[in-house]
Amino acid sequence: MAEQQRSSPALSAEATDSRTLLERLQQSADVLDQLSVTRAPGLPEGAQVTLRQEAEALREMRGELGLLLKSWSLLTDTSQKLLNLPPDELEAGVRAALEVLGRQIDAQRGYVNLLSDDGEHLSDSYEWCAHGMQPHGLATHRGRSVVDFRWSLDELRAGRMVTVTDAAKLPLEATEERRLCALLSIRSYINAPLLLAGRLIGWMGFDAMDQPREWKPEERHLMRLTGHVLVNAVERKRRDAQLLQEKEREQRAQSLGILAAGLAHEINNPLAYTAGNLEYLRERLPGPNEPTDEECRQVLDEALEGTLRIQRIVADLKALSATSAEAMEPVDLKAVTESTLRMAANQLRHRAQVVRDYDTVVPRVRGTATKLGQVLLNLVLNAAHAIPDGHASQHRITVALRAEADEVRLSISDTGCGIAADVMPRIFDPLFTTRRSGEGMGMGLAICRDIISALGGRIGVSSEPGQGTTVEVFLPRAEHDAFVAPLPRVGPPSLGRRVLVVDDEPRVLDLMRRLLRGHELVTVANGREALAHLGQDRAFDVILCDLMMPELTGMDVYHSVRDTWPGLHDRIVFISGGAFTPETKRFLQEVRNPVLAKPFEAQHLRDMVMTVGSARLD
Question: Which of 216, 435, 499, 586 is deepest in the core (most CB within 10 A)?
């Protein structure tokens, strides 16, 4: 009755019309029966038999029509309870649908069990009980194995219903089913398979607790109809969950991009003056033919190499937020590998012995030394972290380079802990990590995969828990193998320009004074000071302006200069540690002014100062 009260007026009217039609069919059959018993005047001989046959046909028609109407009513009611619900309310909808069907077929308990993807465990369970009945507590069984119910599962996977009229007469092979029925006082039960594209995803069942009973054909028919609706609802929930996961991954990737670009910007500021000062010191040292402390020069060279590697890491962080077109070139992968192993030597030597296994001739590959160096560093450090510290003599990290048909294969194998099977599908997900807090952000393999894919290669991982892991990277060969690495440009400071430098980082201003000695420099610490100074003095050949500053940004300075002193804005060179906001990216695409990316080479800075602004502005 409560279900009828919740029905819409239209459905109530249809139900009333259906009952009226069934009553009229029954009345017609009764009238024909009466006529067949009482012979009316003028009624031909044998007409009574015909009347009785017609009455029986009407009753059969009434029964079939009643079953169709009952099926339609059940299907409509069940669909309303399941298909219009949001995914997080599916459990309540399944219970409501079980109650409708359970009352219809006079069962004492109903349940829906859904299987895991491998078909061997329960992933979800829902249950309904008639008034006064105790539930099985199936919700606590989620995650449990169903391997012991082989007899029932074989029937269900074949698409057949499991119809048990008397649980005491179950076949011998249904050992677990018999035990469970005795434990739960189940006298009879029926299970209907839930199939999706021919695959068993679960089953729906009903129990009779008082006595053995037959399950009528119309009851099995109603169960199959309800099962189809349940499968559609479960599949819709799965699709909605997948869409939600995709949206979450997309939002996480966007957030990761903003985080990476912001982090790159923050790193680039100290990196700029660190690398610049080191380069300045190297320039001031005596030449190679003059007496000097060779160890001091070596320390400076190694420090510069370290800052270059940091610069490459930052470039990869920036690549997460915006894809930049970097010129491809033939890369000596063996040289990049050796450089990487030298850089990581301190972390490797306490964990494993490094074994090099290179082909005699390793062709150059298509890519960039920057990108490939970052991939190698990530993979080598991952291998090191998989090995416990302090047992270097017992472990190996093998780095192999092999020339293949059109590719070069780089493989890095370790004898570490390996990767668990349930973790393997997620190893390339951004921000996924199995390390302890503070030991990694989970971006390494995601960055490696993106870099390798962008270079036209591919990456794969194989692992055995407790035995170790092997990562294989396949890179396309370079079309032209000849390549000469450019020598670092080291030259004397250029002279004769008047330069305004605007930057909120004091050490960057100090670096500018050192690197641009011989030029006339004026330095200010923010955008407001810059505009105030330009209001009094605009005779500058070049304005070096930081792009991201508090209060007034470089964009604000540009717009004010352009609007107040037209023409002077063409002399602005932006200094940027990374444009990580959409507004900043659009701005740099629209303006024609050059951008000096932090950290910058000394000679690049000097060249920029000499080429921007052909004459002083009076």
Answer: 499
Per DSSP, the chain holds a count of helices (H) and strands (E) of 17, 17
The Cα 302–Cα 281 span in angstroms is: 13
> What would the pLDDT profile of 315-365 be if each residue is shown by its tens digit?
655 554 544 445 678 889 998 898 888 877 767 877 899 999 999 999 999
DSSP for 92-113 reads: HHHHHHHHHHHHHTT-SEEEEE
Burial 189-214 (b: 16+ CB within 10 A, else e): bbbbbbbeeeebbbbbbbbbbeeebe
Tell me how far apart the alpha carbons of residues 156 and 377 are, in angstroms, rounded to a whole number. Answer: 52
User: Residue 199: what are its φ and ψ, rounded to 5°?
Assistant: -105, 135
For residue 362, the 8-state DSSP code is: -
The continuous run of DSSP H or E covering 409 comes out as strand 407-414
- Residue 23 structure tokens: 């009553």
Q: Which of 183, 123, 178 lies closest to 148, judged by CA?
A: 178
In what side-by-side order are the strands of the sheet with 468-476?
353-358, 396-403, 407-414, 468-476, 458-464
3-state SS track over 182-193: HHHCCCEEEEEE
Tell me the three state secondary structure of residue 545. strand
Which parts of 273-364 are beta strand (E)? 329-331, 353-358
Nearest to 225 by CA among 100, 87, 406, 367: 100
Q: Count CB neighbours of 125 within 10 A.
A: 21
Q: Are strands 365-367 and 122-129 parallel, antiparallel or unpaired?
A: unpaired
Q: How far apart are CA 456 and CA 72, in angstroms?
A: 57
**Are 568 and 538 spatial neighbours (Cβ–Cβ below 8 Å)?**
yes
By the 8 A CB rule, do 389 and 351 touch? yes
Of 41, 182, 202, the closest CA to residue 116 belongs to 202
Name the pTM for this structure: 0.38
Tally the C-alpha atoms within 13 A of residue 418's C-alpha that lie toward its C-beta. 10
What sign for the dihedral angle of Cα 600, 601, 607, 610? positive
CA 48/CA 68 separation, integer angstroms = 30
Distance in angstroms (rounded) separating the CA atoms of residues 434 and 427? 9
Spatial distance between the Cα atoms of 13 and 33, rounded to a whole number of angstroms: 31
Nearest one of 393, 410, 382 to 354, comparing CA atoms: 393
Could you tell me whether strands 572-576 and 542-546 are parallel, antiparallel, or unpaired per DSSP bridges? parallel
Task: Kindly provide the b/e burial profile for residues 421-430, where b requires at least 16 CB atoms within 10 angstroms of the residue's own CB.
Answer: eeeeeebbeb
Q: Quick one: the chain helix, strand, coil %, rounded to 5?
A: 50, 20, 30
Which tokens is 464 given? 């055995």
Q: Enumerate the β-bridge partners of residue 111.
A: 127, 205
E strand residue ranges, 16-160 = 109-115, 122-129
Dist CA 96 CA 99 (whole Å): 5
Can you read off the two tokens belonging to residue 286?
Answer: 């005596």
Total Cβ atoms within 10 A of residue 181? 20
Q: What is the pLDDT of residues 486-544, one digit of tens each?
A: 444 444 444 578 999 999 888 788 888 888 888 999 999 999 999 999 999 999 999 99
If one counts every other C-beta atom within 10 angstroms of the C-beta of residue 381, the result is 17
